[in-house]
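Quick one: co-fold with zinc ion.
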Amino acid sequence: MLVDAHVHLTDREYDGMEDVVVGMLRSMDIRAVSVSMDLETAERNLVLAEKYGHIIIPFAGLHPWCVTSDGYADTLDGICSFIEANIARIKGIGEIGLDRAIASDSSSDGFKAQVRVFETMLGIAEKHSKPVSIHSRRAVDDVISILTSYNIRGVLLHWFSGSKKQLATANGRGYYVSYGPVLVYSKDKQVLLRHTDRELVLVETDGPVRYGSCFSDRTAMPSFLASVAYAFANTLDLNYGDAEALLLGNAGRYLGLNL
Ligand SMILES: [Zn+2]
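Sure, here it is.
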């Protein structure tokens, strides 16, 4: 069994393909952590989990791309109320985080809004002992610095793309990092993986992202995860079975679930 640690199954890109995607998850023995962007996708994640059972591990959160500097308070209130009302069915908080590619200036209203939303989401995760799935594009240091004020039970810096130094800091604090299909064709990612604590690494697709090289610019499907796990095993000189067992143990600890 494999766990896709970060995928957006409720993205519109997968509309009309639900049966195919879920069929693939079933036949390949993959469980998927389906993260949300906003209230609407968080609601649909719960519907998916209800329909397909334990294959879907539903998360709820407000993505920094969905945070605008004006009027975000109502959006934030909406997702917070939803999470509180459904906390028993929600397995984690995400996707949440910071993105300096869309708000680079720390003093801008946009960045301040991202921080406010991120801190609120972390507060909910801490209160309910839920794991978090974090977006940290060009903001790894900011994210790590904010996290130090919270006691979160499982932290994942998904699609890790920081430096080796930032990786060492993150792993040193017990944070998980995940790698996706880029690991299959990027030497830089393979080098980063070799420097990663083996007990603190997960794999993901981040679907519906499209991947180049051998993936021919196609939307990520569950089948891509087997390629990532294979590249993971090769990079670390593990046989596939040992790699799968290692990844499953890591996913179970991160999620606090008996998988
Ligand atoms: Zn994502």
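If it helps, The chain has one domain: 2-255.
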